[in-house]
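Below is a filled-in request sheet from our internal design queue. Each sheet records the structural input a requester submitted and the sequence that came back. We keep these sheets so that new team members can see what a complete request looks like end to end.

REQUESTER: design group, bay 2
PRIORITY: normal
MODE: inverse folding
CHAIN LENGTH: 299
BACKBONE (tokenized):
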């Protein structure tokens, strides 16, 4: 199933998982998916080599497992950094053979101190290539606070518009801790004529180290309100976890009531946290009917 159709009449709630780290067994992610199977998010995406790990091999089998165990559509992340056209064509054939319909097309991070040696300079090049060679539903990444490499937000939106025009059906955002960044970004997209559904990426934070890593890797701001939580509970893991869950729930409630197209939960493969957040918010998604909302707001 093409996931873009989901956005027509509901606010989408999706999950992201990643393949286990190199030394861990693939069974660990299958256990996580098994724990999540009764929740029925609208789709689950699987990262590919994120963070520079060489954990690429299992992405496609995990996506197949998502369909089989959780009975929801899967989305395969597909970074093209350092890939030749031949590599990408082989990958396309692998995805077709596995029956994968949904791809999150990415450039990927260029390892520090290296240059991209592949045939695709930007995600937009990969997207145009995928459009030529397959009939996939194509999603792409976007950055409410701007991508770290962009000189400014105007340039970032211009590049995003080019990327969407290359053939993107749907966008998923980088995580953010202050919803105002996402709302301003939505306005910029609307002004630029970017009209595809945009899902808001939410990451529940459960320790200080994780936030510091994310802030430096992704360039996201950590608001004072959140810093106070980190400082107060950094030595109390249970309180920190509960505060992280509550903070994510609060963000989601605000996003859904502002009428976002969808929320993408970075689960960090933590089924306990994903379950808590899902249970606290899923009725909000069930009761949003975009068709009705649009009709009433135009009345
Ligand atoms: P692009 O869209 O190509 O943008 C990269 C930079 O180039 C931006 O600064 C952009 O403004 C600029 N740019 C684009 N086009 C042009 C142009 N024509 N001229 C000049 N500048 C241009 N990484 C992984 O390795 N694996 C994953 O599974 C993964 N999943 C992710 C999921 C989400 C939801 C997000 C938000 C990110 C994910 N990433 C993943 C990280 C992502 O690959 C990095 O953020 C990477 O640095 C950029 O990838 P992109 O596809 O956004 O690149």
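RETURNED SEQUENCE:
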């Amino acid at each position: 199933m093409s996931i873009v159709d989901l956005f027509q009449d509901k606010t989408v709630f999706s999950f992201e998982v990643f393949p286990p780290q190199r030394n861990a067994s693939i069974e660990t992610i299958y256990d996580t998916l098994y724990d999540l199977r009764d929740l029925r998010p609208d789709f689950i995406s699987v990262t590919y080599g994120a963070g520079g790990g060489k954990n690429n091999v299992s992405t496609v089998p995990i996506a197949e497992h998502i369909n089989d165990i959780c009975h929801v559509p899967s989305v395969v992340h597909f970074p093209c950094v350092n890939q030749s056209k031949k590599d990408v064509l082989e990958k396309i054939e692998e995805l077709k053979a596995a029956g994968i319909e949904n791809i999150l097309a990415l450039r990927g991070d260029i390892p520090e101190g290296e240059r991209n040696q592949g045939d695709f300079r930007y995600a937009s090049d990969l997207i145009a290539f995928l459009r030529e060679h397959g009939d996939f539903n194509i999603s792409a990444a976007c950055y409410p606070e701007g991508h770290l490499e962009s000189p400014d937000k105007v340039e970032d939106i211009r590049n995003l518009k080019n990327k969407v025009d290359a053939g993107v059906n749907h966008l998923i955002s980088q995580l953010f801790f202050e919803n105002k960044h996402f709302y301003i970004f939505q306005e910029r997209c609307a002004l630029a004529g970017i009209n595809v559904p945009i899902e808001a990426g939410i990451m529940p934070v459960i320790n200080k180290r994780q936030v510091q890593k994310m802030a430096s890797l992704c360039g996201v701001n950590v608001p004072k309100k959140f810093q106070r939580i980190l400082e107060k509970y950094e030595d109390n893991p249970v309180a920190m976890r509960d505060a992280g869950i509550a903070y994510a729930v609060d963000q989601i409630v605000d996003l859904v009531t502002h009428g976002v197209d969808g929320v993408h939960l970075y689960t960090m493969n933590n089924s306990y946290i994903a379950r808590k957040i899902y249970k606290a918010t899923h009725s909000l998604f069930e009761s949003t009917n975009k068709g009705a909302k649009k009709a009433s707001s135009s009345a």
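SHEET NOTES:
- The chain has a mean pLDDT of 92.
- Strands lie at 12-17, 43-46, 74-79, 102-106, 137-142, 170-175, 198-202, 262-266.
FILED BY: M.R.
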